[in-house]
């Protein structure tokens, strides 16, 4: 292509590439508890059997507190262990439905519990994600350490430590993630961290983030390259 052709073609190609720069990347879904509890609930289940259907699906609502300060930053929610069963934070509906756009993305949240003993209770998953048929569980390699806010994060893809149906279940495939994320019916986050009816657990900054597909990056890079070419040619 000679220089004249590039000069003529570049603006056209640039215009075609511009939409790629704005390819819709699903916006993060988040609860920062800045103004209220954002529709979260806390449930207590009266069994500790890992992966048991009741453990995953059932539970009884218990009271918890919305705090306007002391979060990371601002407001957060906090629950006091209500029984010797397991208690969990239950996400509102915005964290359910078709979340396919978040496959391969990350789920992160901040938590603390007090008193803190990072070796104390490892019997419950940190995250439960289900479509009502297949349930994915994830537990961090270690419990949070210390009584101040801890950042916890996992990836929604194979190889990130998820299991199916129980903490000792098989590892999910990409197809399993696609199935669950296609119609999420529940997202629950761990509250139970300490053996005995002892702990107070806080939750803040729950964020579901999509990551661009490799193809998106390529298109963006291509678009940027064309814009650079146009800029050079116009000088
Ligand atoms: Ca907050
Ligand atoms: Ca408990
Ligand atoms: Ca406890």
Task: Describe this protein's structure.
The structure is a single chain. With 235 residues, the chain is of the alpha+beta class. The protein has 2 domains: 1-24 and 214-235; 26-211, Jelly Rolls (Sandwich), CATH 2.60.120. The chain has helices at 3-21, 53-57, 174-182, 214-234; strands spanning 29-31, 41-45, 60-61, 65-67, 76-80, 86-90, 106-114, 127-130, 135-138, 150-155, 162-164, 186-190, 200-209. The strands form 2 sheets. Strands 3-2-6-12-8-9-11 form a 7-stranded antiparallel beta sheet. Strands 1, 4, 5, 7, 10 and 13 form a 6-stranded antiparallel beta sheet that branches. A hairpin with a 4-residue loop joins strand 8 (127-130) and strand 9 (135-138). The longest helix has 21 residues, at 214-234. The two termini are 19 Å apart. The mean pLDDT is 85. It binds calcium ion (3 copies).
Give descriptors for this structure:
alpha+beta, 23% helix, 7-stranded antiparallel sheet, 235 residues, binds calcium ion, Jelly Rolls, 6-stranded antiparallel sheet
Quick summary of this structure?
This protein has 235 residues and is of the alpha+beta class.
């Amino acid at each position: 292509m000679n220089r004249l052709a590039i000069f003529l073609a570049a603006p056209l190609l640039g215009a075609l590439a511009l939409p790629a720069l704005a390819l819709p990347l699903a916006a993060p879904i988040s609860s920062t508890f800045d103004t209220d509890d954002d529709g979260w609930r806390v449930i207590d289940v009266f069994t500790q059997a890992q992966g048991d259907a009741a453990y995953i699906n059932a539970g009884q609502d218990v009271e918890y507190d919305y705090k306007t300060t002391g979060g990371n930053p601002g407001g957060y929610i906090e629950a006091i262990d209500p029984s010797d069963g397991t208690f969990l934070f239950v996400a509102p509906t915005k964290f359910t439905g078709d979340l396919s756009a978040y496959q391969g993305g990350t789920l992160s949240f901040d938590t603390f519990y007090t008193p803190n003993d990072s070796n104390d209770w490892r019997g419950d998953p940190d995250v439960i994600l289900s479509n009502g048929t297949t349930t994915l569980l994830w537990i961090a390699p270690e419990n949070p350490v210390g009584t101040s806010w801890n950042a916890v994060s996992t990836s929604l893809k194979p190889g990130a430590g998820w299991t199916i149906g129980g903490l000792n279940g098989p590892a999910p495939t990409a197809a399993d993630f696609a199935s669950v994320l296609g119609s999420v019916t529940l997202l629950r986050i761990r509250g139970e961290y300490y053996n005995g009816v002892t702990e107070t657990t806080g939750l803040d900054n729950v964020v579901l983030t999509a990551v661009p597909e490799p193809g998106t990056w390529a298109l963006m890079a291509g678009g940027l390259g064309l814009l650079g070419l146009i800029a050079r040619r116009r000088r």
